[in-house]
Amino acid sequence: MTGPFVIKATSRINEGQADAYRPLAQEICRRVEEQEPRILAFNIWVSEEEDVEVVLQVHPDAESLEYHLQILGDLVRQTFEYTEFVSLEVYGPPSDRLRRMFDEESGAVSVTYYPTHWGGLTRLGTG
Q1: Is 2's pLDDT higher than 90?
Q2: Span 5-114: which CATH code?
């Protein structure tokens, strides 16, 4: 059974940087909406204290995430001026390329893989 390919990335927002970081986060969201027609969902949530963010991406497959990283990689790297990566959770089987990239670039960051989808559904319509 195959499901969507989901990424959950958690980062700490550097102290006092939330206001400076917000326009970059909003620009990333804008570009995803304009340039990535295959992506099913892309959302950024921030804690009440604005010191932690969670980015949740829902892709139809791993190739969609590869495309996302290809076209937005430079912009995503700019987020590291404002944030510190804490953890990455990967739901769905990553391509060999993605697994190598996650394992090599994550450093001491926790990366957890959940490659097997046992069941479920995805409804993304508002209604």
Answers
A1: no
A2: 3.30.70.100
